[in-house]
Amino acid sequence: MSRLRSIIERSYSPYSGFRVASIVVDEEDRAYPGVNVENASYGLTVCAERIAIFNAITNGARRIKKIYVASETREPVPPCGACLQVMAEHGSPDMEVILVSLTSGAIRRYRLKDLLPHAFTPDMLGRGKK
Question: Which of 34, 39, 96, 107 would bridge with 22, disulfide CB 3.0–4.6 Å?
Answer without folding.
Answer: 34
